[in-house]
Design goal:
This protein is of the alpha+beta class. It folds into two domains: about 5-170, Uridine Diphospho-n-acetylenolpyruvylglucosamine Reductase, domain 3; about 175-280, Enolase-like, domain 1 (2-Layer Sandwich), CATH 3.30.390.50. The protein has helices at about 10-20, 30-35, 75-80, 85-95, 100-105, 105-115, 120-125, 145, 220-225, 235-250, 260-280; strands at about 5, 20-25, 50, 60-65, 65-70, 130-135, 140-145, 150, 155, 160-170, 175-180, 190-200, 205-210. The strands form four sheets. The chain has a five-stranded antiparallel β-sheet. The model has no long low-confidence stretch (mean pLDDT about 95). It binds flavin-adenine dinucleotide.
């Protein structure tokens, strides 16, 4: 029989993780499905379970001079209600499940679940977010790319948990989130896209893209982005073919029940091209 533990404090949760071997349950919207059982039977967990959703200490959004700090148990609805989190984040989070789910599900759960089709993490890559992993032994701050190491794989040790997510503030003045799914709501992404640009006046200071569901982890190509820095908007058109070719080599989609790799590949390229075209048009 597995043990079910509801710690009264964050400190107590960390002690349990130090002394035992637990599945963490936050909102439970991924993990409860993973271990679901037949109707009317409790989930089939193979390890003890630590339920942390009651830990109000980890429900916060702090806006500091250069970063936002998001506590691991902050729900998507709390994030959507926050007045100054960037629109590109909110657009992505609003496409996750329905309102009921968004009241319990967490961004930390989206990170630790490490699905190649996760939507919530897409703008985290765009903004160079960092994840604070903590244990009784201390904490370490790790870039999002180093936390998610592959499909369903993370660098989070069994005695650690995500404590908070740190999002640097950026002066992007054009952003976009697009999710391609089978239907408008409650769909798993076939392809997802985030774009962000800091353009002023007519010069590209920064142009970033992230692509989801088209590789084992989110694609962000800093080398390609670097080649676009400092260009005049009027020069961007001449770079489009180069950018699409360069991303084409990195996009490695798979066939699955939702879509096929050829469709995913082409749609991902179209989304990049559309964003670049929009920038060129808006000057
Ligand atoms: C109907 C439905 C629709 C959905 N739609 C979408 C969608 O459109 N887009 C999308 O991206 N996802 C979607 N999801 C998946 C899910 O809702 C999200 O991934 C959500 O962010 C998971 O958060 P959670 O708090 O529920 O995680 P949980 O299920 O509690 O946990 C998920 C994983 O993270 C680990 N974990 C949780 N918190 C921590 C922590 N603080 N430290 C370390 N490990 C931790 C758990 O051990 C588990 O392995 C959907 C799910 C359902 C059921």
């Amino acid at each position: 029989m597995v043990k079910h533990v509801i710690p009264e404090s964050y400190r107590e949760a960390l002690i349990h993780l130090r002394d035992g071997d637990f599945h963490i349950v936050a909102g439970g919207t991924d993990i409860m499905l993973k271990y679901r059982n037949e109707a009317d039977l409790p989930p089939k967990f193979d390890r003890d379970v630590l339920y942390i959703l009651n830990l109000d200490e980890l429900k916060y959004i702090q806006s500091e001079a250069h970063v936002w700090r998001i506590g691991a148990l902050t729900s998507y609805e709390m994030l959507l209600d926050h007045p100054d989190l960037p629109e590109v984040f909110k657009a992505a989070w609003l496409d996750i499940g329905g309102p009921g789910l968004r009241h319990v599900a967490t961004l930390a759960g989206n990170i630790a679940n490490a699905s190649p089709a996760a939507d919530g993490i897409m703008p985290l890559y765009l903004y160079d977010a960092q994840v604070v992993l903590e244990s009784c032994g201390g904490s370490r701050t790790v870039p999002i790319e180093a936390v998610i190491t592959g499909p369903k794989q993370t660098a989070i040790a069994s005695h650690e948990m995500i404590r908070e997510i740190i999002i640097p503030k950026h002066p992007f003045n054009v952003t976009q989130w697009l999710k391609v799914g089978t239907r408008k709501a409650d769909a798993i992404s076939k392809v997802s896209f985030c774009g962000a640009a800091h353009v002023e006046p007519g010069v590209i200071h920064e142009l970033r893209f992230t692509l989801g569901s088209v590789a084992p982890t989110v694609i962000r190509a800093r080398d390609i982005e670097g080649s676009l820095k400092g260009l005049l908007i009027s020069e961007l058109k001449t770079k489009t073919a180069f950018v699409l070719n360069a991303y084409s080599e990195r996009i490695q989609p798979i066939d699955d029940q939702r879509s096929n790799k050829h469709y995913r590949h082409q749609v991902a390229l179209n989304l990049i091209e559309d964003f670049m075209t929009q920038l060129i048009k808006e000057g």
